[in-house]
Amino acid sequence: MAKEKFTGVKGMNDMLPQDAAVWQHVQSTCVGVLERYGYQEIRTPILENTRVFTRGVGEVTDIVEKEMYSFVDSMNGDQLTLRPECTSAVVRAVNEHNLLYGTNQRLWYFGPMFRHERPQRGRYRQFYQLGAEALGMEGPDVDAEMIMMLSRMWKALGVGPVKLELNTLGALEERQAHRDALIRYFEQNQDVLDEDAKRRLYTNPLRILDTKNPEMQDLVNAAPRLLDFLGEKSRGFLSRLEELVSAAGIEYTINPRLVRGLDYYNHTVFEWITDRLGAQGTICGGGRYDPLVEMLGGRPAPGVGFAMGIERVIELLREVGQVPVSTQTDVYVIHHGGDTQKDALLLAEAMRDADVRVIVHPGEGSIKSQMKKADASGAEYAVFATADELAQGKVAVKCLREHAAEVPFAQQTLVDVADAPTAVAQAIAAVRAL
Ligand code: ATP
Ligand code: MG
To answer: What is the rounded average pLDDT of the residues 325-331?
Structure first.
């Protein structure tokens, strides 16, 4: 009978052990920066009631119209959705637990999101976002600080130059006036509109500006600009934001066509873009969403946030050659089985007490075959808990790597068993300092 082969779900990736170091590096670097700005972690479930997203993201969006993994819970008939983004879920949780009662919140999250898109480079059906939400603060100082925080993250990660694009969506009434003008403009150009645009003409004409259809680019480029409909307050918000971002030495361009995928934004919207990843060059998007907290049932409170796509950030790190090499083993312990195996296990425990990362050879085997395993493990040192040496109360230590001459134990050396953990820990420290 043919063996059944199992594969992962299309568009959903395994993170393999050889990539663990870069994933951990990205997360810990970003979290280190977030903590310097007073952000705290929040974790919400991967499943939410579908309404959280239809209400929170908006009915007339790509996400809700065609990208959500939704299903009925067969146990009780609940309508559930695998989260396509996390802002709505975070706001749901903040409201449910009254986290804005008499205070503000600065929150970050990290985790998988799910969207039923056509898989391609930088676009997957399960992908990871790291994001943050600043809730209860009006801005634009908070928006500016968020952009400074992101700029600091790019530097800390070493992603190389990324471009910041800024825009404003103004306030509701301004968007309405602009919307009317847009509808009139697109009505006069019906023949150039594609299917998506026709469908959105009366539901969400702003989103037509976001089209990726090359045949509509001239049309949208000449469309009425929201910037021309802004009142004094919205203009003031944007110019103060620009002033603060400039003062921090961060370069940006105003992109009047930047409207972003989600419905709940007002005032500030921004994206960070690289030209090194082809079509999927946006590594981070964000903006202000003052209506959202109330839309999801809370007492009105303003908010601003961002989400970065981790796969794209990692791909960019590979492009610029900034991927950390992963070393996962310091020491490989070789032994002769029997009692020497017991001594090997105990010696390994003592080395781990000294923070050394140790693999003990599993089972038994010739010294030669164990040496091969030691080498393949990437360990810096082999420790030989072998019968003759242990009989004298000693083990042998040997550096396995090319730089042996520059660190202790270049030659195989006998060390008292009791001294070995400290001696090995010092040798590992010397390797790290190279
Ligand atoms: P796009 O225009 O590329 O579809 P979006 O506007 O849908 O992006 P957001 O909802 O703002 O994206 O998500 C924030 C970030 O998450 C994006 O800038 C991107 O880096 C990442 N991202 C979004 N969708 C995907 C996906 N399907 N696969 C991988 N990363 C994604
Ligand atoms: Mg999208």
So the answer is: 85
* Distance of alpha carbon 84 from alpha carbon 123, whole angstroms: 13
Q: How far apart are CA 404 and CA 384, in angstroms?
A: 17
Compute the distance from residue 432 Cα to the ligand 1 centre, in Å: 38
Distance CA 271, CA 285 (A): 4
Return the ∠ at Cα 77 (arms to 73 and 82), rounded to 5°: 35
pLDDT tens figures, 376-417: 999 999 999 999 999 999 999 999 998 889 999 999 999 999
* 136-145 as b/e: b if 16+ CB within 10 A: bbebbebbbb
Distance CA 48, CA 208 (A): 29
Ligand 1 binding pocket includes 312 (Cβ within 6 Å):
yes
Contact 390, 343 (CB under 8 A): yes
CA of 256 to the centre of ligand 2 (A): 19
Q: What pLDDT is recorded for position 416?
A: 97
129 labelled ligand-binding: yes
The CB density around residue 371, as the number of other CB atoms within 10 Å, is: 18
Q: Which two tokens stand for residue 414?
A: 């006998």
Between strands 303-309 and 331-335, the pairing is: unpaired
Regarding the beta carbon of 150 and ligand 1, being less than 6 Å apart is answered no
The reply to whether ligand 1 has any atom less than 6 angstroms from the CB of 116 is: no
Domains along the chain with CATH numbers: 17-170+230-319 (3.30.930.10), 331-432 (3.40.50.800)
Q: How far is CA 342 from CA 199, 337, 348, in A?
A: 72, 8, 10
Helices (H) and strands (E) in the chain, counts: 15, 16
Q: Are 48 and 89 in contact (CB under 8 A)?
A: yes
DSSP per-residue codes, 42-57: ----SEEEHHHHHHHT
